[in-house]
Amino acid sequence: MLRINCVNPVSYYLFLFNSSKPNMSSQMIIKITDQNSSQRLDKFLTKDGSINLSRQQIQKFIKQGAITVNGRTTKPHYLIKMGDSIIINNPLALWLKTTPAEHIDRPPLIRLAVIAETADYLVLNKPAGLAVHGSNNQEQTLADILAAQYPSIKKIGDDPERPGIVHRLDKEVSGLMVVAKTQAAFADLKKQFQQRKVIKQYIALVYGKISVPSGIINFPIKRSAKGFKMAALPITNKKQTNLAGRPAGQSPALAGRQALTEFAVVGNFINYTLLKIKIKTGRTHQIRVHLAAYGHPVVGDNIYSTAKTRMQNTKLGLNRIFLIADQLTFTDLANQKKNYKINLTQELKNVLNKIK
Questions:
Q1: What is the DSSP code (8-state) at residue 333?
Q2: Domain spanning 199-355 has what CATH number?
Q3: pLDDT for 305-319, tens place per residue?
Q4: Catalytic residues, which ones?
């Protein structure tokens, strides 16, 4: 038996290869150190790259028992601890089971557009098309990029899947986000968001002409029966509501969660309206679902839309949603108010020029 020891500062491997067996039976053992603890098993193995498999493949092999922890079967979301031994049985055989198409080379990490940075936080301009966290495939996420470009941020926060992240933007939406670089800043920013002291402003282009100069949409929001989207519940005279925004006697789970979206018209076009938006709550897809329920879907949105608007989205050639978080205001640890603002991207400016 040939033993190869490979040691690095992060973890070490014992790759055991028995050349006497024709099936090339082997075993790889990864010993977890303190630097690697508190990560999901599947996420760690994907980033580690020791077996060069996609996260989806790794999850499959964990469920099949080909990858175990301390000799016991476990689940992909298991949080690894210092001293754990990850055992990969027949790693070469696992690799050979995957097709060449599944060995996808990851693109280089996107370089973050950092607007401001201090010792406690950084403010960045997230591009459209980048998920904040939780991707189950080979696509990189903001969490991946933060962990790579700011290694010390991995320990910040209350979830290793979301290092330093205190709020989020939809994958299809671009704009300003604040990320904590210290645990003190994380706790303080999280508290500000919970107490709704952070001011978040957005610019959106919607279909149709809104005749009022400003307004408030307060439809409750709940998970749609379709599962992958949300649904807003317009309040009508037929259903009297209580102060929680739901029919008297009905539970929040059935009636939806309270949501509040303020808007002001900043520009009118023949069949479109440009809006400035502030949200008092942060429900999933809140702005998009509220505006669609209000009768004015966001341009570029193919989920909260109609057949007509989806067709128009194609004609406009917009590869994203016309929604950008253009202004963010919060208080730093020195109790100083910080306000950051960005302009529309060139792609969004081109759409405005096209519809004038």
A1: T
A2: 3.30.2350.10
A3: 899 999 999 999 888
A4: 170
